[in-house]
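Field reference: "sequence" (input) and "structure" (output). Example, 4-O-methyl-glucuronoyl methylesterase-like domain-containing protein:
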Amino acid sequence: MQKFKRSPIRAFAGKWMTCCLLSVSYLATAQQQAANRPTMVAGFPVNYSEDSVGTYTLPDPLKTNDGQKVTSAEVWMKKRRPEIVRLFEESQFGKMPGRPADMHFNVFDKGTPAFNGKATRKQVTVYFTKDTADHKMNLVIYVPAAAGKPVPLLMNISFIAYNQLIDDPGLMVGNVWNKEGQRVKADKPTAFGKMNIEQFIDAGFGFATVYYGDIEPDFKDGIKHGIRSLYLKPGQTETAPVEWGAIAAWGWGLSRAMDYFETDRSIDSKRVALQGASRLGKTVLWAGAHDPRYKVIIASISGEGGAALSRRHYGETIQHISDPSRYLYQFAPKYHDYAANVSSLPVDGHMLVSLIAPRPLLLQTGSTDYWSDPKGEFLSAVAAAPVYKLFKEKGPETTVMPAAGDTSLLLNELGYFMHDGGHSVLPGDWTHIITYMKKYL
């Protein structure tokens, strides 16, 4: 067991704007940063003082349920890792179903030149059921036009439709869920701005993305409309205590994207990286833990319920998540039983991080993202490093948190990078992410 002193680092910026995966920083000045540190959320106080985090003991990822010490990669893979996966299924995310029998694909854009001929674009609808009227997601995929063989690829999960994300007039206009819980045409610009896709093409990578709302809406009653509705028993309106929440549903959809990649000869499906930010940072961690086909995981600003340590009473906590006005639906119902007694939670962020081993994992965060606790993410990587060491892979070898902009831990198999700024993915972060992909893909 490892004992740590708790501490504070997580800034709240509102449900929709905190989710940004693009180059938008909402904490531009010290005054703004202070304003985005609420002292009370959902009726619960928020701590930002390292002196007030107390002490805590982390569960040992290298000790099996029956007390055996894990000393080899073989024991980890065959015994301990499956135990931890089950613990997360039972206590935090819920259990995902498998691939649906009637799933099928429609490549309706079979290869169109894009970005002045630099890339080739495909658009694909993944149908989760035989009935094509509903329960489907749309993927857009770009690969370098000059590639003479299957290419490695970055798969991104987005908060907006891909025609809103990418400056490409040939894209289908998708549908998105609005704040009123209605499906509307995605024909308007968003605050997220456009993403530079050509940087991936120039580096020799493909790029793909999906709108998370295609899989499951991001609101309390989303279960009535999303993929989880197909798995409810007759008369059931909510998930049972250990069934899946919305995060698991989004992760399930990412596995269905991989199912498609395995059929596409332009993509090297054994070299696909997966990236998401905020609640989608949590999503890619759980998707990557559950689906080892993803070679590299890049979890941006994933915070509480992601890479940050829940036992650190700093910034957002399970209590804040579990209030009925907030994010109950994103997790398995059982998770909220630990809101008032986090020390009884059988898992924590370092164990989620450890499930990616020995595959490369980059934790990307921001120095003023106090609500999401960048220090908690760093300490999580420190606590997960012994699992990577079983495979002779490198994680943090220091307990001293690097400064903003310090790249000394960036290229570890278990990497960590913190930009100077808040809850966002900045243009410079993509440069570092591409460098990381170049090394490991």
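The CA atoms of residues 74 and 336 lie 33 Å apart.
The longest strand covers residues 104-114.
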